[in-house]
Design brief:
This protein is α/β, with parallel strands linked by helices and 242 residues long. It is built from seven helices and eleven strands. It has helices at 11-27, 43-55, 83-90, 111-125, 156-159, 182-185, 201-208, and strands spanning 2-8, 35-39, 65-69, 71-73, 128-129, 132-133, 137-140, 165-169, 176-180, 190-195, 228-234. The strands form three sheets. A six-stranded parallel sheet has the order 1-11-10-7-2-3. A three-stranded antiparallel sheet has the order 4-9-8. Strands 5-6 form a two-stranded antiparallel ribbon. Helix 2 (43-55) links the parallel strand 2 (35-39) and strand 3. Helix 1 (11-27) crosses helix 2 (43-55). The longest helix is centred in the first third of the chain and has 17 residues, at 11-27. The two termini are 24 Å apart. It binds 6-phosphogluconic acid. The site of 6-phosphogluconic acid has 14 residues, from helix 2. 6-phosphogluconic acid (6PG) binds next to helix 2.
Amino acid sequence: MEKSINIFKNIDELSGFFAQHLKTKVKAIPEGQFFSIALSGGSTPRAVFQYLALNYKTQIPWKKILVFWGDERCVPPESEESNYRMANESLLDQVSIPGSNIFRIMGEARPSNELERYAKLVRQHITLVNGIPQFNFIMLGLGNDGHTASIFPGNLDFFNSEKLFEVAEHPQTKQKRITATGKLINQALNVAFLVTGESKAEMVNIILGHKEDWQKLPASLVHPKDGELIWLLDDKAALMLK
Ligand code: 6PG
C-alpha cells in the first residue's frame, strides 16, 4: 500500500488537487473500459463536488465513470439527509454522466433487503479480484469520532465483516445507514480521505500519529492492500500534526 498525506491552505486548494488526481486516474483507464467510484457523504465531499461541477465539466470524461456510494442514510432520495441527493445536486446533475451510470443506494428500502440488493449490484458491475469487487476509487470522510463511511467506533465488526455492506446505526441519532465494509474499502485501487476543519484535528492526529487507541478507530483500519491511500487535509484539520 502506498500512502500519502497532503495538506492544503483551504478547501479550494484541496478540491483542486483532488480534481486533478481524479482526472489523472480516470484518464488512465483504457478506452472502452469504465472507471468505478464510490462517493462519500458529508460537507467536505459536498464542497469538492461543487468545485468539480464548476471547474471540471469538460476536463474529465464523465461518461467513463460508474457512480456508487460508500454509504447512505436510510432516508428517501429527496431527503435533505440523502448522500445521493447531495451528490446529485452538487455534481451529478451538472456533468455528463448518463443516469444509467449512477447506482444509488435505495435509502427508502428496507435496510436488510437493500444491503443485499446493493452488494449484488456492485458485484455485477465492478471487476472482481479474488472474489471481491475492486473499485477504482473510494472517497471517504472522517467523523469527529473517527468514523468513516458509516462505520462508527465500537462497530469494528462491521469493518471486519465478511459482507460487502452492512446496516449500521448512527450512535446519537439512531438513524439506520447502509455502509460499505472494510472488505470492500480495503480492496479498492485508490482511497482518498477528504478532511477539513479544526474539529477533526484531534482525530487526525490520533489516527495518523498512531496515538493511544488509534487502532480502535474505524478510519485507522483503512489500508487498501493493493492500492493507494491519500489523505487530503486542510491546515485546520492538520493543525496538531505539525
Ligand atoms: C456520511 C459520511 C460520513 C462523513 C463524515 C465526515 O454519510 O455522513 O459518509 O462518513 O464523511 O461524517 O463528514 P463531514 O465532512 O461533513 O465532516
